[in-house]
Design brief:
The strands form 4 sheets. A 5-stranded mixed beta sheet has the order 1-7-6-4-5, sandwiched between helices. A 4-stranded mixed beta sheet has the order 8-13-12-11, with helices on both faces. A two-stranded antiparallel ribbon has the order 2-3. The protein is about 30% helix and about 25% strand. By secondary structure, the chain is of the alpha/beta class. It has helices at about 20-25, 30-40, 50-65, 90-100, 115-130, 150-155, 215-235, 255-265, 275-280, 285-295, and strands at about 5-10, 15-20, 40-45, 75-80, 105-110, 135-140, 160-170, 175-180, 190, 210-215, 245-250, 300-310, 315-320. It folds into 2 domains: about 5-170, Thiolase/Chalcone synthase (Peroxisomal Thiolase, Chain A, domain 1, 3-Layer(aba) Sandwich); about 175-195 and about 205-320, Peroxisomal Thiolase, Chain A, domain 1 (3-Layer(aba) Sandwich). The structure holds oxa(dethia)-CoA.
Length: about 325
């Protein structure tokens, strides 16, 4: 049977760090509110770095760890809702930058579930089309899509990129189960319009496209759907929730992770958190958290990765370290 293993991980952050106190000089908020309501203490903000540059640096690190040559990469998928360009794809730019001259490239838009969706697509393609080495990246520069006068969103999001290289293996299978889903009824609960939604014939006001979110409804969705999705994946894998060593959730809100831990009856110490450092980096948050977690992962550890967000989308995967 063909298995899939992870052979490389990479992460890249922009240089600039913005603290809660600094944001509190810009909008009516406080370090105390942000910390207690979200767990966020600071976030990275791109001033000059672009999405494809962050993605490229994360990819290069993953490639180095894998020991592969760039020409051996068969497929590049970038999950992002903040590409620098709609054409070409971020994935094409990354492939060009790293020298992945044989790779098929495309971007995938599933917001904060993007990394799990991209992994599902990558692994299905690896199984059906026999692509051997696949680079999946989550990369975002959300700071350029924020209304910096909206305290409901500007305190939450951050920029960054995380990369994973999946490889076919005849001996090892690290990926046990993936489940993805969408509830289109909630499609407009988190919105980010495209850059050019009006043409020159439109006579009304043209607004700068920024992220808007109904935080309370998304919170209710996340704390309901994520435990359900995790239970489903764990059940399908023939395991019990107690057998899962680590939970790496999309880093949207520390309280969401604590609520999911309570609902699953799992100690919250098993939930990996880097939200204090980086905020919510959408599609980048899961691969970045996996990267940060790996110093504490032991061979054989069972890990749940779970993303959720705009769409509304969710996705969970079980991997063995
Ligand atoms: O990544 C995709 C998935 N995203 C999520 O899963 C996000 C889910 N939602 C959340 O994490 C939370 O809803 C937020 C962190 C976005 C907001 O926290 P909340 O506890 O749900 O706050 P709220 O929106 O219910 O607002 C409570 C109060 C309001 O004031 P009033 O109306 O009670 O007087 C807000 O105006 O807090 C106020 N508020 C703030 N106050 C200080 C909202 N944002 C801020 C702020 N600083 N930054």
């Amino acid at each position: 049977m063909m298995g899939i293993r992870i052979v490389g991980l990479g992460k890249k952050l922009p240089e600039m760090c913005l603290t809660n106190d600094e944001i509190a000089t810009m909008v009516d908020t406080s370090d105390e509110w942000i910390k207690t309501r979200t767990g966020i203490e600071k976030r990275r903000v791109s001033v000059t770095e672009t999405t494809h540059q962050l993605a490229t640096q994360a990819a290069l690190e993953a490639l180095k760890e894998s020991g592969l040559e760039a020409e051996e990469i068969d497929l590049v998928i970038v999950a992002t809702v903040s590409p620098d360009t709609n054409m070409p794809s971020t994935a094409s730019l990354v492939a060009r930058n790293i020298g992945a001259v044989k790779a098929r490239c495309f971007d995938l838009s599933a917001a904060c579930s993007g990394f799990i969706f991209a992994s599902e697509v990558a692994i299905s393609m690896m199984k059906q089309s026999h692509y051997k080495n696949v680079l999946v990246i989550g990369a975002e520069v959300l700071s350029t899509r924020l209304d910096w006068s909206d305290r409901g969103t500007c305190v939450i999001f951050g920029d960054g990129a995380g990369a994973v290289i999946y490889q076919q293996s005849t001996e090892i299978n690290q990926i046990h189960c993936i489940e993805i889903g969408t509830d289109p009824e909630g499609a407009e609960l988190i919105l980010l319009p495209t850059q050019t939604e009006k043409n020159k014939f439109y006579e009304g006001e043209i607004k700068r496209p920024v992220i808007s979110m109904n935080g309370r409804q998304v919170y209710a969705f996340s704390t309901t759907k994520v435990p359900e999705s995790i239970k489903q994946v764990v059940d399908k894998s023939g395991l019990a929730v107690e057998e899962i060593d680590w939970f790496i959730l999309h880093q949207a809100n520390s309280r969401i992770m604590d609520s999911v831990a309570r609902k699953l009856n799992v100690p919250k110490e098993r939930f990996i958190k880097n939200i204090a450092e980086y905020g919510n980096t959408s599609a980048a948050s899961i691969p970045m958290a996996l990267y940060d977690a790996r110093k504490q992962l032991k061979p054989g550890d069972k890990i749940i990765l779970s993303g959720f967000g705009a769409g509304l989308t969710w996705g969970t995967m079980l991997l063995e370290w």
